[in-house]
Amino acid sequence: MNDLRGSKWRKWDLHFHTPSSFDYQNKSITNLEIIEGLEKKEVRAVAITDHHVMDVERIEELQRLGKEKGITVFPGIELRSELGGSESIHFIGIFPEDSDVREISVKLQGKLEITSSDIRRKGDDFVYSDFKESSELIHELGGIVTVHAGKKTNGIESIRNNQKYKQAIKKDLVEGGYIDVFEVGQLDDVDDYQNIVFPHLGRNFPLIICSDNHLIKEYHTKANLWIKSDLTYKGLKQAITDSNDRIKLGIKPEQIVNYETKKTKIIDSLIINKTNHKMTDSWFDECNLKFNSGLVSIIGNKGNGKSALVDILGLLGGSSHNTFEFLNEKKFRNSKNNISQHFEATLKWASEDTFTKSLSENVSNTEVEKVKYIPQQYLEKLCNEMNIASGNSFDDEIKKVIFSHISIENRLGCETFDLLLALKTKELSEEMNIYRMQVSETNSLICEIELKLTNTYREQLTEQLRVKQLEYDQHIKTKPEVVEKPLSGDQVDSGYAQLAEEVALLNAQKSQLQDEKYMKVEKRKFFVKKQEAVKSSLGKIDNFVLQFDKLIKDLSENLELLEVNQEQIITLKIDKSLLLFNQEQINDELIKLTEYLDENSVESYNYLYEGLNEKLKQLEEKLDRPNKLYQSYLTQMEQWGRVEKELMGDALTPNSLAYIRNQLIELDSLLPAELIKLKDLRKQLSNQIFDLIQKLISTYKDLYNPVQIAISTHPLIREKYQLNFEVSIVLNTFVEEFFKMVGNSRGSFYGTEDGNRRLKDIIDKYEFLNFDSIVSFIEEIILNLETDQRYSSKSDIPIESQLRKGVTKEQIYSFLFNLNYLSPIYALKLGDKEIDKLSPGEKGALLLMFYLLVDLDDRPLIIDQPEENLDNQSVFELLVPCIKEAKNRRQIFIVTHNPNLAVVCDAEQIIYSSIDKKNGNRVNYLTGAIENIEVNNKIVDILEGTWPAFDNRTNKYIMLV
């Protein structure tokens, strides 16, 4: 099955049994169940390798059923060799999917004596085939040979003779060309073969892991076998030739992961149609191309539509430049006969998103640039842009390149550039983090005050005051009517008088007990605060000790190197005994207070209070009516007074009348001034951070000197160029991070395109080399958040209403003022030359090496003839390794005349472009993998290269003959 998209990673299984094997576990399994089982496990190519038999009818039916499901079925056979003793070595023959299965089966049966009668006569467990004779026959019949190896049962390692004999057998089989592939049993075998066996054999072989499945319903493998090729036998042989790049075991290959996780950044297809059918020339009409997610190499003779294709991809991908090679006013967009206006193209992404545009349209300023397109004429412009705005795209990869050229001794024991940078800037970074924490804390206070200064909050407080005042006024009206104390002396019975005095005494005790409870509650609150203060103090001391210990640890290596005693420089004395003594006393007091206020304790307030109430009740029953009324009045007054006191409260008691009044007063008297003070503090903290960033840049510069020296002698730069880095400050991922927090549904930044454009316009107004400019930038951002700047009214709008779910105003403030988005950028110069002063060869060498290796951008990369102005040797040594590395993490389109970039880079897809000028200038694109015979012929017709490259390509051409 030749795939128009070229070679793709898929699951293969090259060792698989059917019920035709004598030891299959369930002979009732049907061929349909086998195919459905393989489909369920996402196996796209399988070799039927039954024990010493090729069931022709079964294989042909499996091929027919498999074809319907997109599964390629290869005929195969598993044989038992004479080698290995009781645990004989097994090996497998695999043949092309389009071979004559019956003819192969007959020849194998006859020459290897494995006819059905032979098997019956010998018995299934005693059918042996001579390894060398069988291998030669398999090869003569157009097949390949795989051998069990590693820890796999019946593997070549199971030869029981001494190690030297075993090695000699393996070497003999390898040197004689009897083995094409080693099938190991588990992933652990791979390292052993690559590090021990293959070096001894003098060459590497493909390693595979297969299922050896004998029951489709229990299908599993110890590791997946991934092969990148067409689902054809030619594709398999191509993978064997380039096994390092085309065969993977275990986890999904990186290209698949990229495809599954980055579908918005992979171009799936391109459709071009003619909109004016009255026009006679065909050009791109009914053009429908499907693309691979890896490296797509576009080849063809000059003037045959190669640049046209990448121009169209750049146009629909929103390329930000206007230096198209084909879609320009001198060619396809000629003003006298603008052919482009009659064609419309639709670009489809792997995410299913589509974008349609007329070929006469330009890229608008509002379009998002979804591809990186580098036409031939765009190299110089791109170099200039890289010099100005590389901080965002190139930063991380540049760090890797820088670090790779730093000598071991200068790495100070660090394993990455970031670790080295962290070591050299550790104190600066820690100081910045301290200031950033303070910025966050300050923003929390600012947000709290800003909330209180809103009209909504004031209205809420005013309403709370109205309701509370009404509640208080209503309570005042419920004050009990005065009941005079009954007369004493001769006018009343002396017994009642004595009772009245006892009642009065108990009431006084109740009042005293209530006052005592209030004091105890307040005391407990106070002691809880003291308890927390002790706990916090001890925690801060412990944290400080940890920081001190860390400081000592950080200093130790330097002090040891300097032969300086730490105690001579810094000591720490901490005595926590007083705090611990306080903590013990506070805890004891809290235990007593809690017991007193505990309802269930016999010594609690509730117990004593209820006791007094019971005594009062008994005494009041004995009182005469006047005294009962009076005592009732006293009880009511006591209860009324308690509620009145609670309602009025004080300035520190939440939800009380006095508290709400005080809150309203503070809105005008205290909070505005406090807000100004906090904002000034925030600005000062942000300024401190900016000063540290500038110090950080100075540290960066110190790191670049050894890198420049290393690059100046790098063999990839033929004339020993010296690359210079000039550091500046730019915004880093500001736009992306901003819109992760701020939505596009309302306010100044309404709409995805309009909002992005507004933010970009604001950014473009400022430079970020001085703090005053940064403050003005932040203030304008906040102004656009606080008011809707789209309209002349500039109406207020709450910031919170514009933030995405889960984002707070404090977070957006902290994002703006902690300056995390400010980063150094590296302006590139070659020696003393500015980039625009470089020769074409210098520009190409510099740009392509750094762009391919440094750029972390994972959008599709489109380059029109990157080898232009570079000799073949430079292409082979510079661009090939760069492209082979980059294609694993991003989709790459390359127009090339150089075989190094098409074949040696092992392009996943080849597109051969041609124009039939006798047939209305119809543009034709032939697509497929290198192993596709029709495509392969075009490669040979069009491309030629250096001898090292030709040697690499020769194997790929020969294996297809």
Describe the model.
It contains 31 helices and 21 strands. It is extended. By secondary structure, it is α/β, with parallel strands linked by helices. Strands 7-6-5-4-3-2-1-8-9 form a 9-stranded mixed sheet. Strands 15-18-19-12-20-21 form a 6-stranded mixed sheet, with helices on both faces. It has 4 domains: 9-251, TIM Barrel, CATH 3.20.20; 260-371 and 859-958, Rossmann fold (3-Layer(aba) Sandwich); 397-450 and 678-825, no CATH class; 456-671, no CATH class. 50% of the residues lie in helices and 12% in strands.
Can you give keywords for this protein?
961 residues, alpha/beta, TIM Barrel, Rossmann fold, 9-stranded mixed β-sheet, 6-stranded mixed β-sheet, 31 helices, 21 strands
Query: Might you state the CATH topology name of the largest domain?
Result: TIM Barrel
Q: Helices and strands: which structural class?
A: alpha/beta
pLDDT < 50 stretches: 387-394, 714-718, 945-950
CATH class of the largest domain: Alpha Beta
Question: How many E strands?
Answer: 21
Q: How would you name the oligomeric state of the polypeptide chains in this document?
A: single chain
